[in-house]
Amino acid sequence: MTIQNVLVVGGSGFIGRHVLNVLASKGLHATVPTRRRDHAKHLILLPTVDVVETDVNAPGVLEALVRQHEAVINLVGILHSRKAAGGAPYGEDFRHAHVELPQHIINASRAAGIKRVLHMSALGASVDGPSEYLRSKGTGEQAMLAADDLAVTVFRPSVVFGPEDKFLNRFAQLAALSPVLPLACADARFQPVYVGDVANAFALALDERDACGRSYDLVGPREYTLREIVKYACRLGGRRRLVVGLGKGLSGLQASVMERLPGKLLTRDNVLSMSVPSVSGDPLPFGIAPTSMEAVAPLYLAHAAPRDRYGVLRHKANR
Asked: What's the mean per-residue pLDDT of the chain?
């Protein structure tokens, strides 16, 4: 049976925007629950997408929503949480978003007789991971894959880039503040994946029988250190900056200060997460050709130099 009706939990965020655009382009109907409908204005104009103002954590709400659909996509993820207390493996927010909600989705799907579930985890997620983020993501992923009575597929992306991202855009913005950028975990390794490739993986997986019960790493074509990524974002933003890598102690000190500031640009838990390389040797699934940062980032970082746009032109020309 071809799936035509999907519930997308966490669909109002950055990745959700792109997943829903792909689903709508294929004519699939999707429902996006959100606590505040005005946070999903960008989705309302999509012809096959319904935005519903509701709280999936309220009693009976998720169960009622799941019953109206043929599949569930869970995109919920957070990077920061209140600190774990009393020796708990992760903080309250991580537990709620990455552990309790996936289990709630599993239970609601079972009760409604819905079999197909797609779940967003993270590269490096593990119940024994060094950070609360990776441990909570690992616990949620483990629960999903253990639900062998459901047709579950788990995706594990590295850091995701694309228009409206909070990754390259943020570094480009920070470059405007100072000629010198002290950088925690400068040698941390990433394999950034384009949000369009992530969205296509989710859409193609819905009707892919061989994807059931499996997890897929989602990565781009090239590895970078964080230092290389920050320098590239600064250059595309029209500013060349001195990037000074901080050692382990200073990285933790910087994070302990920044996590107390509005917006929490960096936390000590983030530093622990970056001790695990966010890279993979696996190809993208379903025959998807990975898109490089150089082919896309100059399009949305406004001050990209002309030579940076050459990669975009080559990409469009399939060269």
From this structure: 92
- Note the CATH number of domain 5-160+193-218: 3.40.50.720
pLDDT by residue (tens digit) across 142-151? Answer: 999 999 999 9
Phi, psi of 60 (to 5 degrees): 80, -10
Place of tokens 């050459």: 310
What's the CA gap between 99 and 101, in Å, rounded?
Answer: 6
Q: 3-state DSSP call for residue 10?
A: coil
* CB-count exposure of residue 195 (10 Å: 0-12, 13-18, 19+): buried
Q: How far is CA 35 from CA 54, 99, 137, in A?
A: 5, 20, 23
Give the tokens for residue 119. Answer: 């779940």
The DSSP element (H or E) to which 229 belongs, if any, is helix 226-236
> Which among 120, 116, 114 is positioned nearest to 97, based on CA atoms?
120
Using alpha carbons only, give the angle 292, 181, 81 rounded to the nearest 5 degrees: 75
* Residue of 167, 149, 145 lying closest to 158 (CA atoms): 167
Residues 5-49 pLDDT 10s: 999 999 999 999 999 999 999 999 999 999 988 888 889 999 999
Map out the domains of the chain as residue ranges.
5-160+193-218, 224-316
CB 30 within 8 A of CB 9: no
In this prediction, what percent of the chain has a pLDDT beyond 90?
77
Are the CB atoms for 75 and 155 separated by under 8 Å? no
- Torsion angle (degrees, nearest 10) of CA 166, 250, 92, 136: 70
Angle at 130 between CA 96 and CA 133, to 5 degrees: 25
